[in-house]
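call fold(seq) -> tokens
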Amino acid sequence: MKERKRVIVVTDGDHMALRALRMAARRTGCRVIAKSAGNPTPLSGVELVQCIRDAEGDPVIVMLDDNGDSNQSGGEEALSVLLHHPDVDVIAALAVASKTSSVEGAAVDFSIDRYGNRIERAVDKDGCESNSYIVEGDTVDILRRLDVPVVIGIGDIGKMHGMDAPERGAPVTTAAIEWVLHHATQARQSAHNR
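ret:
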């Protein structure tokens, strides 16, 4: 039986985020579905599954963006398809913070700050620790309604006042992906030991 492809969902779709994710993927041995980038995400859940199946390597990074439209359910529908598809194993989501209003946000299990450190609370767009466990962002609300195994907060990918610049190796995004892989390895070992 074919093993399910592991997937990391990122709630951002802009060009700078894609550049940073490509760099982080190169540094961590992952693959990015570049076709998933865009504001909003140009592919349906079914199309994303096909791209994931076709991708070489594992895990695969998928970008989801609803362009800040609270009425648009395309990103949520796509994530729901990924979470329930038998060929896909969504292992984590990076909840990308942004300066936005009228959003609920989503609770995080932990965050990665602008220095690449793991912290227990949420972060803002600049990757600074907030006083809350809720990350607010354009597309983050979709994570509230769906059961993603682990949600990790992160600032604006590829930016954070240059701290995560692709030219610098996207260190914050790289650290977040490394934490996802670390968490997934621990979860797998824990399941194996039961």
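The chain has four helices and nine strands.
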